[in-house]
Amino acid sequence: MEKQDLLDKMKGQLIVSCQALPDEPLHGPDIMARMAVAAKMGGAAAIRANGVEDIIAIKIATSLPVIGLIKQDYENSAVYITPTKKELDALMNAQVDIIALDATKQPRPNGEGLEELVRYIRERSSILIMGDVSNFEEGIAAGWAGVDMISTTLSSYTPYTKDRLIPDLPLIEELAKASKVPVIAEGNIKTPEEAAEALRIGAHAVVVGTAITRPQIITKQFYDALRQTAEQIKIKKQIK
């Protein structure tokens, strides 16, 4: 699919992040592929996925565009979303439609810079590039570095953005007004209303993950709310 065609296909649409880490109950390519099929049935226009096995299984099961990334920890670097050329090679070999990589100002493993990695992809493929950022400065810099789109994925996840309220709607709106590339809203979007608001303030598309695809966390949110209410009821009865 041509670059502009893919961007047009995603415009105004929902992208569902289907990811489960090794210590989570839904971990595994077969389960993630089924999750992606369910997301497609619900109207998702694309899937964001972690790891080559999951990506391949999801592409076969859904035929939807896949935003691929590889989470990998390295010593002496906080960057873990597609941090080095090794992960880029794996994603290009998996023929993802879009590569997502950390585009923050944090030092990368091997001393590689964002522009260097963008150039590395460009010289070897026509795959689109999504830069995951945490603040306005990084978003603008990522656009100038050559990414095709920027995502607000990492707001509140870097040491210097921990105080940001999430979902970071102000960041989405600021970047949408100033960026030369499309802005993808992502990061702790919990409700359909928040997703719609992100689109209204200028997002090109919206990524939702945990609120759709991580039932253990969704269940915990309901559990915590009920437990808190039960405690409040108990206290009121004691007062009476």
TrEMBL record:
One of its GO terms (molecular function) is N-acylglucosamine-6-phosphate 2-epimerase activity. It comes from the Bacteria. CDD domains: NanE. SUPFAM superfamilies: Ribulose-phoshate binding barrel. It catalyses: an N-acyl-D-glucosamine 6-phosphate = an N-acyl-D-mannosamine 6-phosphate. Keywords: Carbohydrate metabolism, Isomerase. Converts N-acetylmannosamine-6-phosphate (ManNAc-6-P) to N-acetylglucosamine-6-phosphate (GlcNAc-6-P). Belongs to the NanE family. This is Putative N-acetylmannosamine-6-phosphate 2-epimerase. The gene is nanE.
